[in-house]
């Protein structure tokens, strides 16, 4: 099990727990090598940019999107599906207690 320093707890945590908990307020400016980009959550965060990977940190023009409004007809109507609520997330301390 690989351990990385967590600045929120001030102690070492498993890399798996670090990957699950990233994005919280306490993770801002974290220097851990396991840190992912705060915007895309795929690429590793670049050391030169605070919390962003190189591709998300570089400015680029947003594509222009043209939207057309189409009125639905009675034949297009579909039943509404209600999603169940997401499962409750464990806190970082609960996960660490379960690992140790």
What's the SSE blueprint?
Blueprint: E1 3-6, E2 11-14, H1 15-21, H2 54-57, H3 92-99
Antiparallel strand pairs: 1-2
Helical residue percent band: 10-25%
Strand content: 5-15%
State the shape.
Answer: flat
Which structural class is indicated by helix and strand composition? Answer: alpha+beta
Helix-strand pattern: EEHHH
| Radius of gyration, CA atoms, in whole angstroms | 20 Å
The number of distinct helices, counting runs of at least 4 residues, comes to 3
Largest sheet entry:
2 strands, antiparallel
How confident overall, as mean pLDDT? 79
Q: What is the total tally of β strands? A: 2
Mind explaining what this structure looks like?
The chain has 100 residues and is an alpha+beta fold. 19% of the residues lie in helices and 8% in strands. The protein has helices spanning 15-21, 54-57, 92-99, and strands spanning 3-6, 11-14. Strands 1-2 form a two-stranded antiparallel sheet.
Task: Give me some keywords for this one.
single chain, 3 helices
Outline:
This protein is an alpha+beta fold and 100 residues long.
């Amino acid at each position: 099990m690989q351990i990385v320093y967590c600045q929120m707890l001030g102690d070492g945590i498993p890399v798996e727990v670090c990957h699950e908990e990233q994005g919280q307020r306490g993770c801002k400016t974290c220097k851990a090598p396991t840190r992912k980009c705060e915007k895309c959550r795929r690429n590793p965060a670049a050391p030169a940019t605070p919390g962003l990977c190189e591709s998300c940190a570089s400015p680029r023009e947003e594509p222009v999107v043209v939207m057309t409004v189409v009125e639905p007809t009675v034949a297009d109507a579909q039943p509404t599906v209600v999603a169940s609520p997401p499962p409750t997330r464990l806190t970082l301390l609960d996960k660490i207690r379960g690992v140790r």
